[in-house]
Amino acid sequence: MRLYLLALNPTDSVTRGFLPAAARLGLDVTVLTDHVEAHQRAYTGAEFTCEVVECDVQDFREVIGLISQRHTPAAVFSNSDHLQTQTALAAEYFGLAGKDWKAALRAKNKGELRRHLAECGLDAVESAELAPGQDPNGLTPSFPCIVKPREGVASEDVTLVADSTELAQRVKEIQQRRPDATLVVEEFLAGELCTLETLGDGRTRHVLGGFRTRLSPPPDFIEEVLTFTPAHPRPVVDQVLAQLDALGVGLGACHTEFVLQPDGRARIIEVNYRAIGDQCDLMLAEILGIPYFELVLRAHLGEELPADLGARRDQRARHERVCAERAGTLTAAPEPHYERRADGVTLSYRPVREVGARHELYRTNRDYLGIVWAVGPDQDVVDGAVAAFIAANRWEITS
């Protein structure tokens, strides 16, 4: 059976998660991408084999045309935020299991997400869109408010603004960096940032747990630390699931970010209709003790998932990102790809930035230097394991 996997740049989720899982399932894999050389480098020496084919993956017509000329597909899949709608349309064209393309579009388009939830009577968030180059002077939002790209990812160009002067300044700065981007100006939803991780086959949906997220100080929204919670309160989960149902989310993995307000109200920040990233999906598989990536692929092959996944509920985890604090060249960092299992705790470290690489300070997730995570039966123990690793190592940036 042939799996077509659509991708932009290589990610740990694909290289260390989905492609090894596809090999374990006995699937033949064709990676369609517009970053062929990067993928070929990423797969050098890998435990799996796959073919990598050049394709304009952001155009569903090109994807369909290319697949039509090659091996018959058993599944068309992507874990990219940017490619869910294209992947869903291609899967539908070939009569395969796939996401509803309308749900994929609603999840990606933050303006459409807000409008749809409001029309369904589930949550009305004050929100407006700015076309590329449009001046925000005509807007009268309630302050403070959030400015962000309508189809953005990874906290890039997401900022909190206090007044109309700051709004105009931040919009101008973002438009200079993203001249073709539509921006969203929306109500600031205060509260604790949480996630809900789900997995479905289009008939049954499993709630896998979630994370509580510590963010950097405002005005930026860099995710610094995530801690696992096996179960949010049931009323909170029900609120989030009702909104996912309204959006049409059902097949495969979904990573939903929401704010939990003091009155118990759960308000969605964004819906990422794919597996959680930045190695949290690798950690999630360890936490739950299930073949997570295989299960996601099985759902996209049209298989019915087990009623009970056999997931563990006795593990805790901490996922911490080491961030650059200034621009410059990374000249010292721990040895890459460290992993240790001892005393019931799994500790993993993976670099995000290579030694010798020079970067500006972005004030986004692109400032990550490396990611440390630990899984074990006690929260204090895993917190201590991560803290000890960070304290024992150094990341040095020189101008």
Report what the structure shows:
With 399 residues, the chain is an alpha+beta fold. The chain has three domains: 95 residues, Rossmann fold (3-Layer(aba) Sandwich); 62 residues, Dna Ligase, domain 1 (2-Layer Sandwich), CATH 3.30.1490.20; 207 residues, ATP-grasp fold, B domain (D-amino Acid Aminotransferase, Chain A, domain 1, 2-Layer Sandwich), CATH 3.30.470.20. The chain is 29% helix and 31% strand. It has a nine-stranded antiparallel sheet with strand order 13-12-9-10-11-14-19-17-16, with helices on both faces. A hairpin with a 2-residue loop joins strand 16 and strand 17. Helix 4 packs antiparallel against helix 5.
Structure summarized in a few sentences:
With 399 residues, this protein is of the alpha+beta class.
Indicate the mean pLDDT.
95
Query: Roughly what fraction of the amino acids lie in strands?
Result: 25-35%
The helix content, as a percent range, equals: 25-40%
Strand order of the largest sheet: 13-12-9-10-11-14-19-17-16
Tell me the span between the first and last alpha carbons.
Answer: 51 Å
Judged by helices, strands and strand pairing, the structural class is alpha+beta
CATH superfamily of the largest domain: ATP-grasp fold, B domain
- What's the number of helices? 11
Q: What is the third-level CATH name, the topology of the largest domain?
A: D-amino Acid Aminotransferase, Chain A, domain 1
Give the CATH level 1 class of the largest domain.
Alpha Beta
> How many structural domains?
3
How many strands, what sense, and barrel or not for the largest sheet?
9 strands, antiparallel
CATH architecture of the largest domain: 2-Layer Sandwich
Q: Rg, please?
A: 21 Å
Q: What is the count of β-strands? A: 20
Low-confidence stretches: none
Quick one: overall form? Answer: globular
